[in-house]
Amino acid sequence: MIDLDKLSALEKAAKPGPWYAWLDPNNNIEDKCITTIPEEQYIREYNALCGKRWLESNEEVIGCSEWMRAEDADFLLIVEMRNQLPELIAHVKQMEEQVAAINGERNVARQPP
Asked: What confidence tens digit (pLDDT) does each residue in 1-30 have?
């Protein structure tokens, strides 16, 4: 069973989205990050600094390959799940409410007059 309350609490406690996966264009497995800045901006600044990327104080790094050993697909999955989770939770709750309403209507219709 899906624990929507737990997922919702975790989503609200996490850094706000959207999140972005930055995968080193040189395919360096040691240089992958999940950040709160778009990949295009990250790459632009990375290239402007000749491959030495320093984060500014207002930027957030959620995780980097220095301490997160993961494949590119894993980074992309984490980011996509984070970004779509609020909408998914809302959708499931809406479906649950609709099912409950339908079940309630059925129970009322079955009661003898």
From this structure: 788 899 999 999 988 889 888 776 666 656
Residue 57 binned pLDDT confidence (cut-offs 50, 70, 90): very low
Place of tokens 């999940």: 34
The reported pTM is 0.66
What is the C-alpha radius of gyration for the chain, rounded to an integer number of angstroms?
A: 21
Q: Which neighbouring-strand residues pair with 33?
A: 22, 64
CA 28 to chain CA centroid, Å, is 23
Taking alpha carbons only, the member of 61, 57, 68, 69 closest to residue 37 is: 61
Listed in sequence order, the residues at least 6 apart from 81 whose beta carbon sits closer than 8 Å to its beta carbon are: none
Structure token pair of residue 16: 């706000």
Q: Work out the end-to-end distance of the chain between its first and last CA atoms, rounded to an integer number of angstroms.
A: 37
Number of H helices, E strands in the chain: 3, 3
